[in-house]
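Figure 2 data, in text form.
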Amino acid sequence: MKKTALVLGAGGFIGGHLVKRLKRDGMQVRGVDLKHNEFSKSPADEFVIADLREQSAVRAVIDQRFDEVYQLAADMGGAGYIFTGENDADIMHNSALINLNVLDACRQKGVGRIFYSSSACMYPEHNQLDPDNPNCEESSAYPANPDSEYGWEKLFSERLYLAYARNYGMDCHIARYHNIFGPEGTWTGGKEKAPAALCRKVAETPDGGRIQVWGDGLQTRSFLFIDECIEGTIRLLRSNFAGPVNIGSTEMISINDLARMIIGLSGKRIEIENVNGFQGVRGRNSDNRLIRQALGWAPSQPLKAGIAKTLKWIDERVHEHAFA
């Protein structure tokens, strides 16, 4: 009999890719989200449109004991969504409510293994002020001081999953994602993250033009390609290690250098103009010592390889829109 998986947030970027991988692995998959996938049809055996903020909706989709549950559903976006302050109440309320509902329904049905996607945004702001030497070691999370309410909610929900594991003997696994990117991710509209936003700007800009980069461009990040993220996620869920643990890349790059990489891949001559904009912490980079020790795993491909695939995909979308 096929093993069963439930993917919550299956209509999103990471959830969509996860469903495809689980189906390739031969699992019976139920996907749940507020919306269908934007860029391709989900191969899930069953795709349920449901609002996970509603307790009755959650109980309806968690109506059996799944072998694996992946909880990716959240109210989120890039810097233009998280750091304005205008969405704070929605972000905290919606995501916390989803996690409260999901955990309780899983407990009642005796669900096997649960994966929860936290975020590097929960790390203290004071450890990420130096763009050349940020500290994102898992143990540095406390004393807590995230730079956004999104990060505070992630921290609360991590503790919620750990408490359910402790009190009810549930098998919970927590990853702190670091800037996941790739094809079929949001690339326009305000919720896109830096790699997609910069790929879009370069794709839309003619040879000899210029693109705007938020901030001075010296802020640093690491970015993890979607295929690597899915591999790390599945390995973590199927391991005996609970986490929280980073799933990210250690290849740190400044935002200006990321823009230059994308421009180079495009073959165009484009200038960078740094402008005021939301930029989050000054530096962030995944610390992969714990995941390497616990799972014997680390990302395998360089940033440039994933960026090339993402630029190609976004460039095709841009030109489709231009001729639509």
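Caption note: Residues 119 and 176 are 4 Å apart (CA to CA).
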